[in-house]
Every structure is written in structure tokens, then in C-alpha cells.
# Entry
Amino acid sequence: MTQNVSFKSSKSRNFKDKLARYGVSLGGAIVLVALLLIFFYLLYVVLPLFKGADLTPAKSFPLSDNGRTLMLGVEEQNEIGYRFNLDGQLDFYNLSDDGREFEGFKLDKTIVAAAKTIPSHGDVAYATADGEVYVLNAKFETSYPNDKRLITPVIGFPLGEEPLALDMGDSLVKSLAFERDSDTIKIVAIDDGAQARILTFEGEENFISGEIEWTSQQTTVPGIPKQVDQMLLTPDLRSLYMRSGNRLSIYDIRDAEEATLRDVVTINANGANVTDMALMSGASSIMIGNDNGVISQWFDVTENRKRQLREIRQFSVDASVNEISSEYYRKGFAVSAADGSLSVFHTTSNSKLVSEKLSQGKTYNVAFSPRANGLFAMTSDALSFYKVHNEHPEVSWSALWQKVWYEGYPEPQYVWQSTSASDEFEPKLSLVPISFGTIKAAFYAMLFAVPIAIAGAIYTAYFMSGPVRQFVKPTVEIMEALPTVILGFLAGLWLAPLIEDNLPGIIALVILLPISFLLTAWLWTKLPKSIQQKIPDTWSSLILIPVVIMVGLFAFEMSPHLELWLFDGDARLYITNELGIDFDQRNSMVVGIAMGFAVIPTIFSIAEDAIFSVPRHLTNGSLALGATQWQTLTKVVILTASPGIFSAVMMGLGRAVGETMIVLMATGNTPVMDWSIFQGMRTLSANIAVEMPESEVGSSHYRVLFLAAFVLFIFTFIFNTIAEFVRQRLREKYSSL
Amino acid sequence: MNKWFKSGAPWIWMTAGAVSISLVAVVGLLILIAVRGLSYFWPSEVYEFDLSIVGQQTTVIGEIYDKELVPLQRLQESGADVSGLDGEFVERLLLKTGNREYVDLDFRWITENQILSQKVPENIAVLERRTNGNFYGYIEAVVIDGEQLKSRDDHQQVFDSIRRSNDLIDEADSLQKSEIGSVNYRLERIRLKQRKLELEHALTTDMISDFDAQREVLHQEYLVYEKSLFALRDQAARDSLIVRDMRGELVTIPLNNILDIHFPNEMGVIAKSGHWLHQIYKFVSSEPREANTEGGVFPAIFGTVFMVMLMAVIVTPLGVVAAIYLHEYAANNSFTKLIRIAVINLAGVPSIVYGVFGLGFFVYMMGGSIDQLFYPESLPSPTFGSPGVIWSALTLAILTLPVVIVSTEEGLSRIPSSVREGSLALGATKAETLWRIVIPMASPAIMTGLILAVARAAGEVAPLMLVGVVKLAPTLPLDGNFPFIHLERKFMHLGFHIYDVGFQSPNVEAARPLVYATSFLLVTVIVGLNLAAIQIRNKLREKYKTLEQ
# Structure
């Protein structure tokens, strides 16, 4: 090799060396990057949950007439808005930028009263001076010329162009309410003589012509107030709300032939007068607006077996409420007020999402678009369309972590119920029951695992002889490698029925095992010295193995007899009937044992290391000063190793909190909140595993599940980091000793 | 006595008891899984009982599946007939009677007072069927090509004709899977190619006619295959068995529904052992049937191994590089401490959190972007944007990263620094020392880490449920169609198979033995891998002990 070549190559060698250094350092940073990536990605998905709503003005139109508005509406794609006024006029407004103009519609009759349905039905009804009722809506026809979507609005007659006859005689309709479902129509009309009648039209399709023929029935509503300000019919056609000033009369109108007054309730807020009321989507709740800006939510609550309308919660705006308008499917609503403001609220999360002043004058009517991503509002000066960003109104800190009074519930509760078949379902996303389940499962697992693991670690590290330890430690550690799906399967399909069938035996086992250990120990001292000396002391662990097996077999053999003797032959029935405790087959005891089993090796291994590495001269010193083995153990060894044991327990807790498969398979996965050992639970992790595959990407449910994962991440991060710090300190302490 | 308690000796015994409980639990658990898992394949004896139930006499044929003692009182309360029984407890037997389509329940409990007589008839046959589970009965005749032959004692014709029909069915299956599967695959590729050109606005009428011509060729090819497939199936359905069941009625079972037949009561121990081994072989090599509750677990084994290997390819370089950085390069500063905390935390984060992360980040974000960029032609149906084997491998790679790091670092720390210093003193650069000296010496440790990572990944189920595992995958991620490895496909996994069959299947009672068998398989693999890792580590420790002295 010449000098020259080696010089040249050493340059490239240096370069390679540097390259390796940077490459490897980069590789090392990957670990940190991975952890940070998980943290920030989870956060990135979770954060939009807590963002409020915002309104962006998109289009504005001058008011074309002075007639008052009956109903505003928006087409589903937010391309066309419409307005029905009280005179039977329908106008369309182009919300997109394609510049098209649309022709409106005018009902050429003398209108004496008008009514509208809930927003998702979108119908209006006009009563004429001739005692006829016209039902109209705005229809949108979609076509695809040149592969582009084109939406054209037209007037729709959902019940045909022929009006429904009210048969009022000479009197005029003063006030009207209208609602329909697939085959029934109900109209409530009050005439100028304060007579209220309900007309029920039942439709039947004619098989030959395909036309629907209507047959009507009529009944009067007894005892209505003199002055009726507002009427609402529920979309299920079961109830009629009639407001007179601050008093609300509720009629049961299920029967087409008879209407009965169910209740009369005073609904105004303290010292204020009611200005408007509206049904929430699903029509379980009714929102009441007052002239002092208070909006209160009311729904039926069953108390003492009687349904009663009760005030649930209040919201407020700064000025007198003009109109309340609810979303199509979610439990949100918008409020227009006399100070020109528009506010959006959500009932479940009890939050004001956005409030903006739209005009110097007043805001009157307001309507959500079907997907709740747009608002069409009328102010004193203009009709304006706003884009709404309001993805997750149902989630707020209080909805997640505090008791919430859900519709139809007798009181505020913690409930997790994320999905249902109905569109108008109120999602119940309280993390409390599933967090409770996580803590409960971890608690029972630790109850089972900590004593066994730590006692085992003490014996293995301190008393066991070398060769036996060499065998015992890996055996216990193999447990850690066992897939948890297998532990879960055994817990669910083998252990749970076994415990159910042998409950007395299991309880006896818990009592008998320690007693038998003590008994064996005592008998051991009574053995003749000659035999004792033949067997080394350290083997006593192995002597106890047959004892454990024998006591176990004995307990199970005895179990049916005990059951017969103590519990009339069926412990399960006894617990349910006599003690009044619910008994699930897959209960906390099963989870505790199975998950405890999974956690034992984690705790055992770390605690054993900590105890084993207590410097020998410490123990030797203590023994030399005359302390017994036990005194040395409790006063020197365990005290010195206690940070290590603590960190072992933390690690174990971290594992128990996050364990998924065992809880998924060994509990019933019902989110109950009860500490009972005989009941199951639903944990954060199992909840994610069950619901995540079915949740829609980007929905509130999806993000709340990410939040659950984030909570787990933070939980375990804290446990692990504390444990690691403690262990580091301990290691330093040992090395200084 | 008091003094004895004061000495602390009883408490020491109590701690010893804790160790005993742990040991009994571990060993007992392993034995439980092994016994239940392996006995599933053992051909147990089939009994014929003459029963009298509420005065009516019936014959029941079946295997004794379980026994239990119940208090007489409870039996009485549940309204069962307890005449002729005394004592506090009654033994009752759970019989597996099979013949699912002819009886109401294929499992039934009987008590001893119902049994009039019981025997073990020699020539009872157990038919393992493709659908509807086992069938028990006496073979009366074999129908071969329309000709009815009386059953002979050596059953040779039965065995022969079953083998014939099974061979034909195997041939048909392989035709359907490889040839017809390939035609379908190519048809789909043509569709995608056309769609891609359409999206790029480059599709001309010439191309369309060209595609149509290609399609026509494939269609002709398909018709040929289809014809031979139907011919094979017809051939396989030619013969049948006439069997007398426990109701005494004759049942004709076409041979294409019969997988296997054996006569357990005629078998000696050696024959049974042979059958047992054969059953185990069938279990690991065949595909599941009847919504996974019967048949084998081959696709699950394949999926597990494939995913784990993919994961190993990803995790090993990352883990080794990170370990080398931590041990060889990292200065003792707060950044290194931060990385160490990250390692500990990566090991401690619950696996389901990785699943959630994998689903959101890998599947929807990365996979979704890949689809937009490279597979716009197949949208809206996702290619990489839905759970698949590559995302499972990536997710588990992050999950097992700490295992590799910790193990490799331990190996590196066992290499005496004198070795490194020697190399440096002879003029090698640090990189050269690492590459030539340190890594080869640490390779057994890297191996240990890898094995432990593989063992961990093979048993992990929770994250996979979100990022790629399915209960039944129609195709394996590896097949004969270009590009042969299909990383976007979903796969089956042993651990998930256990969960699915044990908890989601319609007939849990019938599926339970299979779950034990699958568990045993999984436990064997994982415990085996762990023991191997421990062995390698111990050898390594011994080796460097001598080096250090």
C-alpha cells in the first residue's frame, strides 16, 4: 500500500465516519419523533372538538317586500335559499355564484292564517278566507347536464294541488297548526269564535289510480284559552302545545276523536314574558324564548310515574328573543334577538357556540340549512346567508366530564351511548362511565396482583437459593409474553363459568390458602430437626406448591357442598335474590384475576430486580447486628428497595389501565358505574376497540374516541415517566452505596 | 406460638406461598391450554345410548363432551325429570350428537336416570362434513356411479371413494383459486387501466376497442375454465354414502360434502395416534369452514407470519440504529435522557393507542394520500386508504421498537470496551469499528431483540383490530398475480381468530375446542420464541463473561 492511496482513502473513510455519525444520530432521534408524532397526531385529531362555531357572511339580499316572513329555508347543498311570507308568496334566492335567477310563486288567495312544520319536514300551510288549506313546500330538482350538478328550485305541493277543506262554516281561521307523517295529516285551526278543532286526514292509496284518497275526521279541543299566541304540533302527531301568554296548555291528541288536556304549565322565565317557542329536532324538547333574553329548554320527565313537562336548563342572549330555530338533526338551535344579534347554542353540551351582531336593527327569522353548515337570517335591512363551521357542538368539557340531563332521562346522569338507529338521536358522550370502568378494572387487577407479585418478588429475590431462582424468575416472566387475547379468552369462556359455578369454592380458596400456608409453616417447625436439616430452607417455596394444588382441588371439590349448605344450592340466585346484588357472569372478579395475572410478571420482574440489587453489605450488616431475617427484610431491604417497588407498581398500573383484550373479552362491556365486584364494566380501551371500526372518520364520535386514546396515552405517560424517574434515582443511590 | 409469629417466619412462608401461587398459575395455565388444545384432535369414543325420556324410548349416538355434578335440588327446580335419582348430587353428561340438520340441538345434556343402556358399537362412523358439522351413524352402503354396494367391514371402498372425491374437489378449488382468480384479477386491472386513461382524458375509441378485445379474450379463457370446473364438481358429486343415523333412518350424504371419515371405536391406540397427527396436520394446513368454527387455520398462520416478517424488516434497522446511537454516540445530556424516557414510554403506551394512531395516521392520512396520488382510478374504493397488512406491520413496528432497542443496547453494553479501544487504536474509524467489530459481536443480542419483538407482535391483537385484521380474508397477501406481494390487502391473524371464534361466532360451544387448539398453537410459538431468546441471551452473557476476564 502506498502512502498516497492510504491518504486518499482516509479522506473518504473520514467522510463515511461522519456520515455514519449523523445517520445514527438521526436514527436515534426517530424514537423521540415517533413518540412526539403519536402525541401530536392524537392532539391534532382531538383539538377540533373544542373549537367553537364561527359564522362567515356569504350572501346578502335586500328585502323585496314588506310582508312578514313565515319560514326561511335553505337547500341541502347551500346553493339556494327560500322564503315563504305570510301572504302566500315564495321567493328563491341564489346563494351560489352562478348568477341564475329563479322564479318565485304566489298563492293567489286571501290568506287568513299560516303555519309551518318543523324544519326537517319543511312544509308550510296557508288557510284561506274560504276555509281551505293549501300545503306547500320548496322542491329542488337536481340534474347533471355536462357532468355538473345543477339544482333548480320549484314550488312543491306535497299533498297535491287541491286544497284540503276545513269545513269552517262562516267563521274565519285565526290561528293554524299543521304537521304530517307518511299517511296522516293533522291540522289544528282556531276560528274567530275561539273554537279550536282538530282535523285528522288519513290517507289511503288507491291501488288502481295510484292516487291518495283522504278521509277526514274532526274533533274539537275543549277549554282552550281565550287568546292563543302560538301553536305547535309534534311531528309524531301525539301532542299539541298551545301557548297563551306565559301559559302553555298541552293536549294529548293521539286519539283522532278526542283531545284531552294533559297539563297547563307556566313557562316564562322570572319576571319576563314569553316571546317564542320551538320544538327541537326529535321533538322531545321544547325551547321557550323570553323578552329578557332567557331561553329555557323543557322536556317531559317521568316523576312518580307521571309525565311532567319540566324546565331543564337555561341559555341567554342579551336582548328579547325574536325567533328560535332548531337544527334538522342535531340538538342545536339558533336564536335571533331584538338587538340584531344571532346566537347558536347546543343543548346537550349546554354551550353558546357563537354570538354575532348581524345588524344595527333587529334580527327576525332564522333557519339552518339541512346539514347545519349554513344559516339564513332576516334582519331589519336584509336577508343574509352565513356559512357556519360548527362540526362538534355536542362536545364540551361539561358534556364529557359532568352529569348531563339528557332528553327523556329522569335526572342528570353520566351516560355513554354513542350511536343509535335514529337520526335525531342525542349522542351521550360522557367519558366518566368508561373512565370509571378503566379505573375499576385496574383497581381489581391491582388488588389481586400487587400482593402476590410483591410478596413473590421478595421471596424470590431475598430468600430463594440461586438455582431455584434461575428457574423461577424466567417462568414467571414467560407469563408476560403470553398473548393477552389468550388470557382474555380463558377468562371469558373458562374462568367466568368456573367462578359462576364454584363461587363458594373461590371464596373458600381465598380464605383457605393463607391459612394453609401458615399451617404448613407451623407443621414444618414441629418436624424433627433431622428431617428439617435434610431439606434446605430455600426449598420451602417448592414445598408449598403441592399445598396450593391440594387446597385448590379441595376448595373446588367442597364448593357444591358449601353451596348447598350456605346458599340453598345456587349461590348466584342467592346473591341476586337474597342479597339484592346484580350478578354478571363476566364480572370484575374475573377481570381482576385475569388482568391481575397479566400484570403480575411486570410488577414481579421490576420489584425483584430492585430487591435483588440491594447491596449485600447492608443486609449483612443488619444481620450481624442481631436482627432476624424478617427484621432485616422489613427494616432494611424493603425500605431501601421501596422506590423500585413503587415504580414496579406504577408500571403495572400503566399496563392494567391500557389493557384491551382481557377487558374486552372478560367483561360484558356495559358502561355501568358501580363498584360491585359482581358486575362488569366498559373501559376506555375496550370501548375504542369496539366502536372505532364503526365510527365515521371526522365525526364527533371518532374524535371523542381519539380523545379516549389520548387520555389513555397521558395516563400511562405519567405513570411510566414517574416510574422511570424513580428507578433512575434508585440506580444512582445503589451505585453510591 | 406468639414467639414464632414474632420471629417473622410465618410471613416468610406467606411470601413463599405467593411464589407458589404464581408458579402453579403459570404452569397450570399452560397445561390447561395444552390439554384442551391437543385433546381436540384425539378421536374420542362414540357411544350409543338407549334413553328413556319421560317414558319415551330413544336412541342417541354421540361423543361425551363434558361431565358435571349438579345438585339434585337445582335439577328438580328447573323442572327436569328426577325420578329414580337420589343423593345430593347427580352426574350429568353433555353429549355432542352432531347431525345438525336432523336434530334440534347438536349438544344435549342427559342424566343417569335416563340411560337404559349404553354401548360402544364397533362400526360407528364419524363423518367430517364440509357443512353442518359432524355426522354420526352406521354406514349401510356406498353408492358408486349409481351402483349401490353394501358396506364391507374393512371400509376400503368408502375410504377410496372419499379420497377420489376429495382429490377432485381439491383440483376444482385450485382451478378456481389460481386460474380463474388470475382471470378475474386481470379483468380488474384492465378496468382500472381504462378508468385511469379516462381520468387523464387520454382514452380514445381505439383504446376502448382494444380493451374490449382483451376482455373478450379473457372471457373466452374463463369459459373454458368454468367448463372444466363444473365438470370436476359434477365428478366429485357422483358418489354418495347411505348412513343410518340415531333415529334409525337412512340418510344419503353426497361424497362431495364429506371431508373425512373415521371409525373411532375400531381404532387402537396407534391408529388413534396416527389419526391425531393427521388431524393436527389438517388443522395447520387447511382453510377455515363454517364461519371459522371448523376446519383449519392456515390463512391465519400465514397472515400472522407474513405480517410479522414485514414488521421485522421495518423494525430491525430502526431499533438497531437507535440502540447504537444511545449506547455508542449519545452524549450524557438531557437530550439523551429525553430519548430514554421516550423509549420507556413507547414500551408503556397501551397497544390500543397505537392502533388508534395507526388507523388515523397511517391508514387514513398516509394511505388516503397514496390513494389520491397513485390510485385515483380505483377511487372511491380505497386501495391503501383502508386497513391493510402494511399498516399493521408499520403500527406494530413502532410498538415493538423499544423491545429491539432495549435488547440490542444490553448486548452492546456487554461488549467490553477494550475490544472497541483495540480497534480504534489500530486506526479504524468509529464507523468501521462499529460495522466490523461491534455489530457482529452484538448480532446475537440483535437477534434476541428481534425474536422478542416477533413474539410480542405475534400475540398483539388490539391494535390490529383497527389497522388491518379481518375475520375472513378472501385472498392471501401473497399470490401468483403480479406484483405477487399485495401489501394493501387485509389479512387473518391467529390472535384475532381466537377472539373472533371464541366471542363472535354463532355456535360458541361447538367452536370452543378449536379456540383452545388455536390458543395452544399461538402459545407454543410465542413461548418457544421467548425461550429461544432467553437461551441466546444467556449464551451471550456467558461468552462475554469469559471475554471480560
